[in-house]
Amino acid sequence: MADLSQIVKAYDVRGVVPDQWDERLAEYFGAAFAQVTGAGAMVVGHDMRPSSPGLSRAFGRGAAARGVDVTEIGLCSTDELYFASGQLSLPGAMFTASHNPAQYNGIKMCRAGATPVGQDTGLAEIRTLVEGWLDGGPGPEAAGTPGEITQRDVLGDYAAHLRGLVDLSAIRPLKVVVDAGNGMGGHTVPTVFEGLPLELVPMYFELDGTFPNHEANPLDPKNIIDLQARVRAEGADIGLAFDGDADRCFVVDENGDPVAPSAITALVAARELAKHPGGTVIHNLITSWSVPEVVKEHGGEPVRTRVGHSFIKGEMARTGAIFGGEHSAHYYFRDFWNADTGMLAAMHVLAALGEQSGPLSELVAQYDRYAASGEINSTVIDQADRMAAVKAAYEGREGTSLDELDGLTVTTADWWFNLRPSNTEPLLRLNVEARDAATVERVRDEVLGIVRA
Questions:
Q1: pTM flag (> 0.90)
Q2: Locate the Alpha-D-phosphohexomutase C-terminal domain: which residues (predicted)?
Q3: Which of 274, 373, 382, 446 would bridge with 432, disulfide CB 3.0–4.6 Å?
Q4: pLDDT score, position 415
């Protein structure tokens, strides 16, 4: 029997195929999703991994057997699936393992309007149902009349929706290198960019779920080396890198230098606040100090949250926020059903760049104000013990404040750091920011000295 505790995560299903899960299990997940949502219809999409078409079809069969009409949109990015869920007002399931290696696959599920399904919002119930069926109990009960399975292409509608949110038709011509990492950006970018004043230089647009060129994870510096070199060689204005399911986008400037996701968050926040004066902007606690500063400077209200899309989307719904950003290059928009879409963030950056004459490096300098360490992982046996040791070292220091909204955050007038345990691995994750690089190095080394003692 499959061990669902290994594959049902906090926000999705994810594991190795066929070792940890297979099409039979996908069919059960489809039946359970149908029962938990109580929906009469749903939409299902998948990425380019070799196992994705079979798994997504099996999921659809499981739902249809329960009387649910299933719309298969086929190959799509995760944000394209969210678009379909929002536009059609249907629950949705996306088959992808994002940036994980080729042997992995997973399911990201949402209710109608792209509202996320996580442990507290239906995923635990889905797991319980599937475990019951696997444990020798009666299987999913078939409906008297099975649902209908139909196919629909929504790529054109998705592109039109995005282009209606950010008008790029009048910007100056830009040369744009895009590294799709053999992922779904190779499917969506040509349609979204078609006819715009953009000279597209494609890299690794061939859909290939074995990722022959590099991992489709642009947050790892080694995976954007090719993009950086190509931007310089082409004399391009900007480089964009998408992850495997194309819901995250990473930006490099005309020099090939990475642009921090916090700077992108601040830039997009300023643009969204121009459209929605006085709006609320969500940022997680690892984004730069510059984000709430820029939001306030543009008349907005910054709200700090825990890391993770369920917390961001929950706070956006609660506050009516117009935009949210994370240090991991996830960007969320009220105009996109509070869902994350790297493509829409990229279009905002292209618009901001194309509406003025200067290079991207100059444009983003106003949003990138501090020195940062990036995320540093330490393997530790006892996370709680090391967290407690770090807390004890800083607690009570003059001019220092501590909070435990998500892990431990220690803040002074000149620097801050956050130390968080991984939910899935024996790791502690450290992020440091300060007013200068020397202070970042000093604080980083001090904290790591305790963590790795």
A1: yes
A2: 375-448
A3: 373
A4: 98
